[in-house]
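[09:14] KT: can someone run the structure on this one? pasting the chain below
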Amino acid sequence: MKNTDIIIAGGGFAGLACAKALAEAGVSVTLLERKKAPGIGMHTTGIIVKECADEFAIPESLTRRVTDVRLYAPSLRFADLHSPDYFFLTTDTPGLMRHLSDEAARAGATICYDTRYENAREDGKNIIVNNQFSCQFLIGADGPRSKVAEDFQLGRNTEFLLGAEAEYEGLKLDDNAFYCFLDQKLAHGYLGWVIPGVGVTQIGIAQRLPRKPDIDAFVSRMGGVFDFSHAKVAARRGGLIPVGGLVQPFARGNVILLGDAAGIVSPLTGGGIHTALHYGKILGETLANYLKHGGEHPASRLARIYPRFYFKQFLRKSYETLAPDWLLDAVVTNPLFINFAGGVFFKKKRLK
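[09:31] RB: done, structure tokens below
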């Protein structure tokens, strides 16, 4: 039996941020990740908001800055949005995951790739994981369908977007813009997007389950907007995006959920990278303080600071039910709507 203070199930943004913070504080931490190597089989778009870029040092070589937004109605009428102080970063997401993994390992975390979290059970004051590891805390950072949550009867995500994205080579865009397409038939409850990435162009769409996104239909529609004559698909990906807000309970004893497993993803935008990194770091620091200095139990602190997203959930449900395509066509160039949309895209992103 291998002894370690902390086991983290899942090597995404949240798990790696938590592992790095723990290792930097001198806590023994082992991360289990089912993938064979960092950065393979990615499901995320890898789009990072300004607030995340300001908080975390992300190598410029792995990013591309995007400054403007062009918002399309279903009829393809559009409004251009701009803020001189705001930007998004698209990323070489596999490269970024390798970078985060290397950082956590250099800090002293033990990262076990090609090692799936299988099961765990409590044994007195310890938790036995995979009948191989003994730890004091188990962190479930294992995605929207968390096995840790299932094993310990914690809250489960029940509301999802399903996203699909393709990376295209040879597709040139006229502007350095984040092109967003509102269309309740193709992207019910969310939107489609085209955005310049790092060496590629990212084209994606998401729908509120049980509807499923048809990426090929969306790309076909984009043929009237962009020139695909020299474009070819370089990669495809897709996955679930939890949009139901914080799961309850997110912790029991010394088992704590983090990232998508905890539901800390914006129900309005579907953004979860910043919350994953931010709260992953906080959980690591709080755990270290608890183990080394008898500080506050991390579950108690997270209960006070984890985002609930009440207002964003209200906006999401309102958009799903009260914004048919004819209304979106009518308002997309309206100054009041443009001002509201500018606030959604450019207003400082709160983590609540």
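[09:33] KT: thanks! The chain has a mean pLDDT of 94.
[09:34] RB: yep, looked fine to me
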